[in-house]
């Protein structure tokens, strides 16, 4: 196969075929702090935190406290990951410890907000599970309080450090595809694991709990472009067995750009996940069967490039979210995944949920909260 034929396999036909070139070397891998390695506490030891803890252990981070109202969950986490950590059932006891500088809150949104308020008052840096808050005004107040207390708040939008998404955002940041004009994301997967769990009772499960990753990536890829409105619909799969609607479509209108997200969460056969980003100087694609297995292709006037990416979203994305917070503390700057930054992603999410409910296009920021 010639280089030109090889390139065609990544394009849309003869007109897009061109020579394969070396992929740009970009800093997409997780960057750890140079020296800062504080004592960390994890509050909430549910199933997802196995990814938090395995990532932190591999990175050499120091988790010294594990807290959950279910002591068995906290003890299991200690036994499996950090045997020297102390176990608690009350997060207030964790906040009293002067030696703990960073608290990773992995509880549900409704109960997490007052915990984070107390953590800011106790001068603790925070990594919040996503979705960050359920009220934009409350989120703004928390962010302002953290600034006054001189502590950092970051949000565990771990998708930013999934290797394919991380490389793509570095391509955009480097200006290699020019100004972004379109972002289209499509996810077809099986989300039926929620059956019988508290997640099944969240009516807007796909747009809220899962979709926040894609709203966050849309915000990141669009790089602060002005959003005019969001239009969304949700629907039930034929014969689906879980409670929430598992089909959702979102259309976004920007100044000089458009975006779309398609969620098909009850796909039983032929799962796929792809993203297309079109700029004035190039096009980016990623595609694969799932979140962890993705190939990235960059099309520019110079040719077609496809990097050999290292790592996977799970658990590397969780490493990245915490690492960025620690680097920001060390460098005395705002984290890239800061609470303030994440409010823009939440504004998209809340607007989409309201649009699906009302049948109308909604301007992000006009819907200030979401009640599950």
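^ Assign residues to that structure.
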């Amino acid at each position: 196969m010639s280089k030109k034929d090889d390139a065609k396999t990544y394009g849309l036909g003869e007109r897009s075929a061109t020579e394969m070139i070396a992929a740009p070397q970009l800093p997409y891998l997780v960057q750890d702090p140079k020296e800062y390695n504080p004592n960390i506490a994890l509050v909430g030891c549910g199933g997802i935190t196995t990814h938090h803890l395995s990532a932190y252990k591999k990175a050499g981070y120091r988790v010294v406290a594990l807290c959950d109202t279910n002591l068995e969950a906290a003890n299991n986490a200690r036994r499996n990951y950090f045997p020297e950590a102390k176990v608690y059932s009350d997060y207030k006891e964790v906040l009293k410890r002067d030696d703990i500088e960073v608290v990773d809150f992995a509880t549900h949104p409704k109960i997490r907000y007052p915990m984070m308020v107390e953590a800011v008052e106790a001068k603790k840096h925070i990594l919040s599970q996503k979705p960050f808050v359920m009220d934009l005004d409350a989120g703004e107040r928390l962010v302002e309080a953290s600034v006054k207390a001189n502590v950092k708040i970051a949000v565990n939008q771990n998708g930013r450090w999934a290797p394919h998404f991380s490389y793509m955002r570095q391509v955009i940041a480097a200006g290699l595809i020019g100004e972004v004009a379109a972002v289209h994301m499509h996810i077809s997967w099986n989300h039926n694991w929620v059956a019988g769990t508290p997640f099944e009772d969240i009516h807007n499960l796909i747009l809220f709990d899962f979709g926040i990753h894609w709203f966050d990536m849309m915000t990141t890829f669009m790089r602060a472009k002005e959003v005019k409105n969001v239009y969304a619909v949700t629907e039930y799969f034929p014969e689906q067995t879980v409670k929430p609607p598992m089909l959702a479509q979102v259309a976004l209108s920007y100044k000089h750009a458009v975006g779309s997200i398609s969620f098909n969460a009850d796909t039983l056969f032929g799962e796929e996940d792809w993203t297309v980003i079109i700029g004035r100087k190039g096009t980016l694609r990623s595609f694969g069967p799932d979140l962890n297995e993705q190939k990235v292709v960059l099309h520019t006037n110079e040719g077609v490039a496809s990097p050999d990416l290292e790592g996977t979203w799970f658990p590397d994305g969780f490493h990245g979210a915490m690492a960025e917070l620690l680097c920001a503390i060390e460098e005395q700057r705002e984290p890239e995944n800061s609470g303030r930054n994440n409010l823009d992603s939440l504004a998209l999410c809340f607007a989409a949920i309201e649009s699906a409910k009302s049948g109308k296009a909604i301007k992000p920021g006009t819907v200030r909260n979401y009640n599950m």
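Residues 1-8, 10-16 have pLDDT under 50 and may be disordered.
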